[in-house]
Amino acid sequence: MSSCCSTDLDANAQPCAQCGTTGPVVGHEIVQPHRSDVDGGNWQHCSTLGCPVVYYLDTDVVTADHVRTQVGHKALDKPTPVCFCFSHTRDDLATDLAASAGVSSIKLAIKAAVADGFCACEHLNPTKKCCLADVHRTLKSIAAT
Q1: How far apart are CA 80 and CA 130, in angstroms?
Q2: What is the phi-psi region of residue 20: left when phi exceeds 0, alpha when psi lies from -120 to 50, beta otherwise?
Q3: CA 36 to CA 6: how far, in whole Å?
Q4: What is the pLDDT confidence band of residue 72, given thresholds at 50, 70 and 90?
Q5: Domain 8-68 has CATH 3.40.50.300
Q6: How far apart are CA 136 and CA 34, in angstroms?
Q7: Which residues contact 75 (CB under 8 A, 6 or more apart)?
Q8: Residue 102: is its pLDDT beyond 80?
Q9: Which of 50, 93, 124, 129 could cysteine-pair with 84, CB 3.0–4.6 Å?
Q10: Quick one: residue 41, left, alpha or beta (phi over 0 = left, psi -120 to 50 = alpha)?
Q11: Per-residue pLDDT, 14
Q12: What confidence tier does 60 reach under pLDDT thresholds 50, 70, 90?
């Protein structure tokens, strides 16, 4: 699997000033497309549902209203990517499940692409992590409804 699937946590990670949850350090490179004035630092991602903060560095924040791309778990009322590398949305996964008798061909294709090194989660996913866990959770949620 590619390096995007690693889950190393930074020992210096700080809690989000808005919700108090400690998110993973993602660095400044992933924040720069959303805020051009970011020069560096150990920016972190807040994945807490309901918290408007997407990225933070101490008390400096980038909120869901200010990111260029929607973050799936932060924008529940919009069609947003679950898989950022291959642009699959929740709706795509739901359609796929319905058409595939409950077995997601999209998930299988993503897994194969990741195994072959064809993902860029560390550059495209706002969390810098592999999307497979999000895809799995989304499929589970769809199946439960």
Answers
A1: 16
A2: left
A3: 27
A4: low
A5: no
A6: 27
A7: 64
A8: yes
A9: 124
A10: left
A11: 93
A12: very high
pLDDT of res. 1 = 44
Residue with tokens 């799936």: 72
d(CA 130, CA 141): 19
Tell me, what amino acid is at 51?
Answer: C
Tokens of 28: 């400044």
More confidently predicted of 121 and 104: 104
Rounded Cα–Cα distance for residues 61 and 17 (Å): 9
Domain spans, the chain:
8-68, 69-145
**Which run of H or E residues covers position 44?**
strand 44-45
What is the pLDDT at residue 4? 56
CA distance 26 to 24: 6
Look up residue 34 and give its amino acid: H
Which residue, 141, 140, 135, 89, is CA-closest to 113?
135
Q: d(Cα 130, Cα 143) in Å, to the nearest integer?
A: 22
